[in-house]
Structures are given as C-alpha cells and as structure tokens.
Fold this protein.
Amino acid sequence: MSAALTTVADLSDRSVLGDARLVRVSRAAALIAVVALVLAAIVAWRQGDPHGFAMIWLQNGIYVLTLALGAFFFVLIQHITNAGWGVAVRRVAEAQAANLNWLWILFLVPMFWLFVTDRQFHGSGHAEGYTFGHGLALIWPWADLAHLSAESPAEGVIVAAKSAYLNVPFFLIRACVYFAFWAIATTWFFRTSRMQDHSGDPSLSRRMRFAAAPALILFALTSTFAAFDWIMSLSPAWFSTMFGIYFFAGICAGGFSALAMGCLRVQGLGYLRGVITAEHYQDLGKMIWAFGIVFWAYIAFSQYMLIWYGNLPEETVWFIARQIGDWAWVSVALLLGHFIIPFLFFVSRWAKRWRGTLTIGVVWMLAFAWLDIYWLVMPVVPHDVATYTTYDALAAVYATTSTGLGNPLNYLMLVGFVGLSVAGATHRLSRCAVLCRRDPRLNESLRFENI
Amino acid sequence: MTTMTPIPQRSSVRATETPTRIYGIMAEFETPAQITVAATKVHAAGYRFWDCHVPFPVHGLDKAMGVKRTILPFLVLGAGATGTTVAFCLQAFTNASSISIWALVWVSGYPFLISGKPLMSVPAWIPVIFELTVLFSALSAAGLMLFLNGLPRLSHPLLQNSRFRRATDDRFFVVIEARDPKFLRSKTEAFLKTLGAKHIEAVEGL
C-alpha cells in the first residue's frame, strides 16, 4: 500500500485543534512585526522621503494582499469544483485568506489620511487648476492633474481624458468596495467552514459551493480593477488590458506558495500529522507551477510581446522604465527566477513531494513574487522620454538609475507586514481546528493519491 | 514481443491430444483489497511477467505490484526540448539567414526586415517556439505512451477468455504468464490458490 495509506492520519485533538503552539507563533510573529515596523518608522523618519516611504508601504502592502488573495482564490476554486483532495489544506487557506478582513487598514487608512490632510509633498505649492484631495498624488500622479500636466504636458492630456475613471472620490469608493467584498466574503467562507466543524452539516458544503460562483466572478473583477487602480495608474498615461490577469498570475505565485509554506509550518508545529501528505504537497506544487510559474510567464510574455511588437512610444515607455539602469537586472532576474529556474525545479515530481525541496522552492517563489510586485510598483517612467531621439541616448542618460533594492526600509516593511499577516492567520487558527474536520469530503482528501 | 509471433502451421498437424500451449494462469479476485494483497505476494515471489487487470484504477496497486515509474516524462521532456530547438532553428534559418540547404530541392533563407525589428527578433519567435514545444511534447506523449504499452495490438489471448470479460465489470484478475522464468504450471496454480483466488484457470493461447 502507498505511503498515504500506511501513514495513519492522526485526527486526535492534539493534531487537529489549534492550541498554545499556534498562540506562541502568533505572538512571536506579532512581536517581530511590531519591532520591524518601529525600526521602519525610525529609518523612514531619518530618510525624510515621504514619497519613497509611501511607495515602499504600497509595494509591501500589495505583496501581503496578494498572499491573502491567492489563498482566497484557492478556497473558491476548491468549492466551485467540489474538489475532494484539498480539504486537508483548506482551513490553512481559509485562515490565510481571512487576513483580508483587516488588510484594508494598510490601504484605506493611508489613502483617506492622504485625502483628508491633502498635503503638498512635492513642494510646488498648490498649482493652478488645483482640485481638492490631491494628497493622493504622493503615490498616484493622476490625483494632481495640474502638477502632472506641468511636469509632462503630453501625459497630462492623456490622463485628463481618463478623469471620469481616475478621480479621487471614485478611486476611494472603489477601494472601499473591493475591501468590503474581500473582507465579507473571506470572513463568510471561514465562518461557514467553522460552523461545519461543529454541526457536520453537509448542506454547508453545498452552500459554500453555490456562493463560490458569484464570489469567483467578483474576485476576478475586484482583483483586476484593484491592479488597475493601485499599480497600473502609477503610470497613469500607460495602459495594458492584460494587466489585471498579470496581477492575478502574481497572486497565484505568491498566494499558493504562502499556502504551501503555511501547511509546511503548521505540520512543523506538530499538527495534521499524516493528514497533509506528499500527495497534497505535490498538488500544491502543481498549482504553483501551473498558475504562478507557467501562466505567469505566459501572461508576462504576452504583455511584453504585444507592446514590443506594436512599438508605440506611449506603451513601450513602461518597459523602458524597467530596462534602464539597474532595472534591466531586475527584469532579467524575474525572467530567470520567476520562470526558468522554478519551471525546471517544480516540474520534477520529487521536488514537489519532499518537504525539504518544496520548502526551498516555495521560499524562492515567495521571494520572486515579492520582486515581481517591486518591479511593477517601483520603477519611475522618465517624463522626458519624448526628448530623446534614440533609445540608446535615453538609456545612456538613465544608465545609473538605481532600483532602490538596497534600502533597508523595503525589508523592514516586508518583515513587518508579513509578520502581521502570519500573526493574523495563526491567531485565527489557534482558536479553531486547523482542519475542516467534519467536511463530508475529508475522507476522500485523506485517501487522495496522485496516479 | 515473443507472444506476438504467429503460430507455425505445422503445430496444428500434431496429434490432437497434445495439450494446447497456454498463455498463462489467471486468478480471479472479488475485491480491490484482495487483489492488492495478492499483487504484493506475487511480486514478492519474484515473478516478472505478470499483470493485474481491474475494472477501475485501484489506488496503491502499482506500488503493490512493484511497478517502476515510467520513463515517459523524460522522453516527453526530450521531445519538448527538440521542439524548442527545431522551432528556433527553423525561424533563424528562414527569417534571419541566407544560407541555402538541400532538402529534396534547394531552399534558402529569406532575411526580411519587418517593421524595423532586428532580423533575430526572438520575442516574435516565441509563440512559434512555444507551439512547437507543445506539439512535439503532446504528440510524443501520446505516441510513446502507446509504444511503451505495446500498443496498438490487434488481439490478446486473454480477450478470448469468456470469464475474463468481467475484468471490465466487477472482477479483479492476476495473470501470470507462461513465459515467466519462475512459471511452472502446477506450482504457479498452487501458489495462486494460496492467495485466496475465487477461481483459477489456465488461459489458452499461442
């Protein structure tokens, strides 16, 4: 008989119920997060660069957001396909996704703070044509159209035509809508699944399956428009209709990797012994490989090739910003580290099944998922791009462009936000079962085996 | 495959009492659990030319039988890499070179600038490279799977056996072939009986 069947699944309370072990992890993560964020505040104060700090905040905020959204997407597809195999890992995903019920704090609070305080961070004073609420221009240039037009008139014209969508009130309303949906949906799925732990009522599975279909549609819309709003509009004149799906591929790379990491660590604490087996890890690895590596590369390349082939200056400028100076190395690193190397690594069967190799692969993918978001958020499109007659002249001027990856603030904020996410998920798990222990398909999941 | 050689005609003119050569011994079981245990024991007994026939995939049976993992993935990887190389070379030759080669007729590359792109425009080639990689992989996966399974095959001695038809319905069969070095009709039959088979039968053939 196979390993899955000879290793008896331990369904005792100690193996299944969240207890002090998870509380300890939760507290440690929260402590590390707080220390890192305090250090980050000190470093940010000394650097005195509100724009740089805001960008790092946004980038790391989006990163931890993708980890939670990835888990949310995992839960939804488990339900909508009525999948049996994933029941053993679903509670971990649910707890991870339920972080969305507080992640709005990282986004909406700064947004509304910038909106209300309405400060001028770029030091030019209130320019002509001033509109209320352009404090958001600290991050999103379109929020202060007058300033943007003064800096780059051509860009100003394009962005002015988009103002029916890209205006501050509508932007804030959309952000509230996304977070309202994410918070409500993930909390509902987590709560319904926990209700089943107590009642064992199979009709709850059915109810979650029916809810998964509209939730999946809303997930696609909200994640797409969130990517448009928060990342694509950083270069407001630029657009790519594939941007939402690119972001989705990134969600899968980071989210599924974080889920696999969560399962590995929860088992490392002594939970779910014999419940999550090599078979489940292999399937998680397949999902990372398929969605986060191959699909990501497919979409990234499609987006690149269409823009490269079309060769329209207002479109190519976005990629130019990512291949001048040190950014060229980041782009190459993504090609190798987010696609070629993990493609070959995760294609192997045993690399997905053995915990040691899976841990290495998953940590690698989490690092490159972070770098991917960094690559999306951080580069600045040169405003004077139109004044150069050749690409080489432009590249020569911007040859010394720095990526800012050496700034310790990046990593302090990363540790802080990831720490908060880990603390949130483990705190939630510590108060319930770490397994959907009375899901009607649990037995199927325990016996699951790859052919 | 030795079992596929046609029967020499002169064997049919032998005396009628000569027993027909048998293909192997077939043992019938009633449950997946029984056949999994039986398979473990047959494997442990050292038989090499034998197989299990079941109406649906039985989890763990491959391991019980000691079946090694197929080499198919590595062959497909090789085929995929071949597709990648072929697609790259094809496009480099046709679009970016003026070399002439003889492929039944003389053919020559035709370097042609398209929308100001360099001749070696690898990004534009990637879709073709991707498609040929997938095509080579998919066709070789299907074709080599059939080849490794010894298919296509027009007939098989087991399919002449009426009892064996239940292998597609509700019975589980272990068949040990006569060509196995350890095969000895009486001993093999006795061995299969010890496994708790519901029914044991010699399968005629060849």
Observations:
- The beta strands of chain B are 22-29, 50-53, 100-103, 105-108, 172-177, 199-204.
- Chain B touches chain A at residues 36, 57, 59-60, 63-64, 73, 77, 115-117, 123-124, 126-127 (CB under 8 Å).
- Residues 7-17 of chain B have pLDDT under 50 and may be disordered.
